[in-house]
Amino acid sequence: MALEKPINLKRGAPELSTIDADLVLGNKPGLTNVNELVEENPFLLGYQGSDQSRPGINPKLKGKNFLGLDSFRETLAELHNVKPEQIVVAGGGMDAMSLVFDAINRQLGEGREFRLGKMAVEQPTYDRILENAKNRRFATRGVRLDTKTGLDLTELEELLKRTQIDLFYGIDPGQNPSSYSYAPEERQEIEQKMAEYGGLVLWDRAYENLRYGESEQNGTPHYFQGPIPDNVIIARNYTKELAAGSAKLGYLILPDDPGILKLFDTVVSNARLNATSYLVSALVNQIIDPKNEEQFHYYSQHLKKLRERFQPRLKKFLEEMQSQFPEARVNQNCDSGYFMQTFYPDIPATPTAQRIFLKEHAEQGLVYEDARTAYTDFYREGGAGIGETRDPFVLMSEEKIPEIVAAKRAAWEKTQEIISQKKIPAPKTGNPKPKF
Ligand SMILES: Cc1ncc(COP(=O)(O)O)c(C=O)c1O
């Protein structure tokens, strides 16, 4: 039966009810609220904090720090066990990661290679990174990621042999959309492979603090620990865990390599206006430092609340899929993130079938993004994304999940019915040949 009220599952925007505005704005006992913060530190409202004295890299910019609020960078550096110089703050995770594309393109330009960057991504991957890369004229190539067997390292190696790949982009933990999490050794193997071929790795740890295993049912935040290998960049954000769109805040941890630090300094300070907000940085800074016990308590309690809210949704979704829709495939090992992928059987890999598939879901009240957006052109041409949905389980209340899964099943059955009436020809089998 169709849902009474359609549910928009296109994106993973945090639910309004998970936003703790008082936490972010400092309106709790022991926190400095936003008005007091600004009164005490008027530079927080200034353009890139122009009164901040800066122990920075580029002496031309003395008194300004485009790389972020120093006190925030210092806290983060301590938490990650790296140097403050390695931290670059930006307006959200995506903004931070786009700096990596800019930096690589700039370096390639300076090296007179006269080419733009090339990136390898997991297949599937976060759709917006593909969009962002395209806007920066970065080429992307895919490598299959399977939730049972991990990243296809043979495919990665073949790709590296065939073409110069400047960057591997991976998401861990709670990969978007597959929900896969890597073991540390798997990440290391990828890092070493990329190093062997002279490429960087960008790990997007957007869901670092949204893990739902048993040992995670407290509010302890995770901080990826340095040292960071020479060819590795980590991206983090607070957007998802503080669940406040207005507190869009992210950062990069760069390797401790003077060349790379200088390159990012140039990219951030000379080539673009960095969208970081000093005010948001200062607000977040006061709650993340475990040394300030009282303030930190609010943050860890908040994380605990989020995990306690999302974990039963994940569990319920997996249970309902198993009982109501066992023909479909989901990652029963999922233990983190926002998203899960559902693979539906017997949907022919043709655009017409996909149109029907999405329309039938909408008819049932399930409004999904077209899952093909998570794939590179090459994979998409081979039919990837057809008959798949990306399910933001965190947005599904436990009471609604049985209905949602029933609606998924109904949409699948309806799609098959229509397809068999229409006699859609079977797709040509096999992937097209690589074009590079
Ligand atoms: C894997 C991943 N990285 C980055 C982001 C973007 O983060 P931000 O909103 O901080 O730019 C998202 C948001 O959905 C995401 O899923």
Description:
The protein is built from 13 helices and 12 strands. The chain folds into 2 domains: 7-17 and 309-422, Aspartate Aminotransferase, domain 1 (Alpha-Beta Complex); 21-294, Aspartate Aminotransferase, domain 2, CATH 3.40.640.10. It has 436 residues and is an alpha/beta fold. It has an 8-stranded mixed β-sheet with strand order 2-9-8-7-6-3-4-5, sandwiched between helices. Strand 6, helix 7 and strand 7 (200-204) form a beta-alpha-beta unit. Residues 56-63 have low confidence and may be disordered. It binds pyridoxal-5'-phosphate. Pyridoxal-5'-phosphate (PLP) binds at residues 12, 92-95, 126, 171, 176, 204, 206, 237, 239, 248, 250.
Q: In the CATH hierarchy, what is the class of the largest domain? A: Alpha Beta
Taking all Cα atoms into account, the compactness measure Rg is 23 Å
- Count, helices: 13
CATH superfamily of the largest domain: Type I PLP-dependent aspartate aminotransferase-like (Major domain)
What is the strand tally? 12
Query: Into how many domains do the coordinates divide?
Result: 2
**Percentage of residues in strands:** 5-15%
User: What's the mean pLDDT score?
Assistant: 90
Along the chain, the helix and strand elements come as EHHHEHEHEEHEHEEEHHHEHEHEH
Overall form: globular
Distance between the termini: 47 Å
Question: What is the name of the CATH topology of the largest domain?
Answer: Aspartate Aminotransferase, domain 2
- The strands making up the biggest β-sheet line up spatially as 2-9-8-7-6-3-4-5
Sheet of most strands: 8 strands, mixed
What is the helical fraction, as a range of percent? Answer: 25-40%
Unique bound compounds: pyridoxal-5'-phosphate
Structural class label: alpha/beta
